[in-house]
Amino acid sequence: MPDEPLTVLVKPAGPDCNLACSYCFYRDKSALWPDAPRHRMSEETLRELVRKYMNYHDGTVPFAWQGGEPTLMGLDFFKRAVEFQQLYGRPGQAVSNSLQTNAILLDDPAWARFLREYRFLVGVSIDGPAEVHDVFRVTHAGEGSHARVVAALETLLAHEVEVNILTMVQPENIHRPAETYEYLLSLGVDFLQFIPLAEPRPDGSGLMPFSIDPADYGRFLCEVFDLWQAEQPRPAYVRMFDDALAVVMGFDHPTCMFGPACGPYFVVEHNGDIFACDFFVEEQWRYGNIHELEFHHIPRLELYQRFRARKTAGLDECARCEWFSMCHGGCPKYRVMLGDAARPTYFCEAYRMFFEHSHDRLREMAKRLNARRAAEEQGIGRNDPCPCGSGRKFKDCCMA
Questions:
Q1: Given this model, what pLDDT does residue 203 score?
Q2: Distance in angstroms (rounded) separating the CA atoms of residues 231 and 144
Q3: Residues 100, 94: contact at Cβ < 8 Å?
Q4: pLDDT averaged over consecutive 10-residue blocks of the chain (400 residues)?
Q5: Which is catalytic among the residues 127, 243, 278, 396?
Q6: Strands ordered across the beta sheet of 191-196
Q7: 190 an active-site residue?
Q8: Quick one: which of 55, 135, 131, 45 has its CA closest to 93?
Q9: 326 by DSSP, 3-state: which?
Q10: CB 152 within 8 A of CB 104
């Protein structure tokens, strides 16, 4: 087994994209490669990446393809990636591929058939109905993209591709939490992820005007949580809520957002450059290049250790908070953009609101789920005492 199960996030087309979303944080990364007006991963770099990564991992090897817009590479690129995964795979290994996309190019059934055949998990970015989505997510000609995204989503679902939805919580939907949640579920997808929008001004003079207010975000989370917990309009997976439930049940934090350390994952850009995180694709956090660096060296790099440790470094004020074990200061991006990585996150108020609102119900859900799990493991029958200790029969308590 590797020293640490690193996950690779691959940006084969770099910051290039066929949309011009006005809130995009990654577009300006092209300045890191000023001599390359067009960014595309070569077959040589793809082969080296797959070979070294397959050699590094045992078990399931996770590839996450992102951008920019990764589908700009074309379908043949991903067919070649799968061929390399098969070529360099070893007995006992499996591969998981995920693709985060604006979906503009995925209305072609050929894409859908390929993604279904090789079981890609496809994350589609959509912010809500057209009047919400099309305010920010526009083409280079300034036209809305909603209709094309929905058409592609329908094609993917018709071909039984596994699809998640990623939604930016932004000024057009933040005051419409129930409507947004119900609309997203109406699209036929059960797995949702919400990302709060906040970006610094390029000159460092504060935040961009489209950045959402933390209290508004807190109210958004609380209202959507109520619907999720009540399974209205139907049961669904919401990443932040299900992650919080897992922690309350006693599991480790599933993602780095609220975990005790950043990562463990890293970014491989189109030319093979390796960075600590897609929020920190900056020269100061460049680990090296895939053509020079072996994966098993990365966890031993001083720069890697320093990046991971700064997740909670200096957070004395946060450490005194009753919710610190649930959020660990949140993502450093939302602290660094305020000019001090050791200060509470910009979204501190939102997180407090959410944890205070949800924690008792999460604990009750966790108690029932843990009791059901214990009943399965111990072979407890419906008329036996419930393993939660209530004294009631299992069928009248946590079995429900």
A1: 87
A2: 32
A3: no
A4: 74 97 94 90 98 92 96 98 97 96 96 98 98 98 97 98 98 98 98 97 91 98 98 97 96 92 91 95 96 92 93 92 95 91 93 98 92 82 78 74
A5: 278
A6: 237-238, 191-196, 162-169, 121-125, 94-101, 60-65, 7-10, 265-268, 273-275, 286-289
A7: no
A8: 55
A9: helix
A10: yes
